[in-house]
Amino acid sequence: QVQLVEPGGGLVQAGGSLRLSCAAFGGSLSISAMGWLRQAPGKEREFVAATTRSGSSTYYADSVKGRATISRDNAKNTVYLQMNSLKPEDTAVYYCAAQYYFRPTTLATVNGWDAWGLGTLVTVSS
Known about the structure:
Helix content: under 10%
């Protein structure tokens, strides 16, 4: 069973940038798509971004499009999320997630992911 570990996160001022990383351990070869979802206080978990195994296709939520870049280094079994022009509304716990079989129609759904990291808190101050 794959384990996803997300170090990083932290406190950032509005307008700033942050790069999140997520490393996969144990069974990483079974992973197809990888992505990020987030959950703000008092809100439901929502999709942020995803990428395919090759990294050639990426998907973004409208709320982060143009401000976020997801990338993947398969040699390191790691996926990254670069977030720029951060806003207070980006404050959330960010979760790394993986699909074992690529299901593009379920990327934006919480139930569409097969494995999850524990999450890392990102706080954007105004």
